[in-house]
Amino acid sequence: AVHPVNSAAWTDADWIGALASDDPFERHAAVMHLSEPDRLEVARAHAFDVEPAVRLGVLLVLWRGGHEDGEAIATRYLEDPDPRVRQTALRWAVESGMLSLGPHLDRVLNIAPVTEPLFDAWLAAKGLLNEAFVHARTAREDSRASRLPRPPAPEVLDAVWKDDTRISEVRAMALARVTDPVGVRPALLELARGNDGSERLPMAAVSALGRSSDDGATATADLLALARSRALPARVRSEALLGLGARPLPDPAALLALLNDLERSVRLETARALRPHGSLPEVADGLRRRLRSEEQRVPPDAALVESLRYALDGPATQARRPSSLDDW
Fold it and tell me: Fewer CB within a 10 Å sphere, N or C end of the chain?
């Protein structure tokens, strides 16, 4: 690649190519050069280049240069195949106060892949790109942006995870960001038991059941039933056990049978879930029996043995844990 210090003889094609350079200094030099008023149209001609890095660079050029067709171009970028381009288009729209893009923001979620940073950018844009917020910010009605009006995030997220026409991974991202999913137990159970080819949404539903502030006994019973269901994928069942480990259990011994499950991840998560209950006689007896049988295997599952011992020994095992980086 040609370095910017030798760019005096560069052609328009060289500058466009530099937008996709591996050298960040070249990319920056290209953006700065092409954002000059007399160069904007050169960049505009490549707004929908086949190379994603070029499209991203042109987006930055048009943003910096304040192109007159900015809003129309940004609207098309919301449906770009590359998630980086879509994410940057959201930033452009929000920071420039492009209110006309407000009704079209959801387009960024309709094309796979949708990355976590892209989803977070979309969620932020939903709160920031509305007339009340833009007006308040422009008029400097408050010195702290956090106090300016914006739609409540829970309502925005609920509209996404409940929409079965959306991409499963997108619904899972939305559900994972709902702090306290109350009053939606039937919907969560349906998703947890679903089979749409992706485990991410069922796992998100199970996790939501675990952190819901709805009736604790009912949630615990739901999680236990999900953990026991061999019709579900091992990762979904393990997620249910993870939720049980963070809840008070009326009958911890009910989990003991899962220490012999066919799925290794289920066995491990069961041992971890039983750690707080190792002092109970019935649980301790079950843990010892399982530990003896595992130690007799050739070879034994070292991770399971360690978890079982931890559940039985409690603080004694914890005292043996490495205490420094060197020990680890």
Answer: C
Cβ contact 108:138 at 8 Å: no
Is the per-residue pLDDT at 313 higher than 50? yes
Could you give phi then psi for residue 128, rounded to 5 degrees? -100, -30
* 3-state SS, one letter per residue, for the chain: CCCHHHHHHCCHHHHHHHCCCCCHHHHHHHHHHHCCCCCHHHHHCCCCCCCHHHHHHHHHHHHHHCCCCHHHHHHHHCCCCCHHHHHHHHHHHHHCCCHHHHHHHHHHHCCCCCCHHHHHHHHHHHHHCCHHHHHHHHCCCCCCHHHCCCCCHHHHHHHHHCCCCCCHHHHHHHHHCCCCCCCCHHHHHHHHCCCCCCCHHHHHHHHHHHHCCCCHHHHHHHHHHHHHCCCCCHHHHHHHHHHHHCCCCCCHHHHHHHHHCCCHHHHHHHHHHCHHHCCCHHHHHHHHHHHHHHHCCCCCCHHHHHHHHHHHHCHHHHHCCCCCCCCC
Contact 154, 123 (CB under 8 A): no
Gyration radius of the chain's alpha carbons: 27
CA quadruple 295, 297, 302, 305: dihedral sign: negative
Token pair for residue 97? 């106060």
Q: What are the tens digits of pLDDT across the range 28-63?
A: 999 999 999 999 999 999 999 999 999 999 999 999
Residue type, 226: L
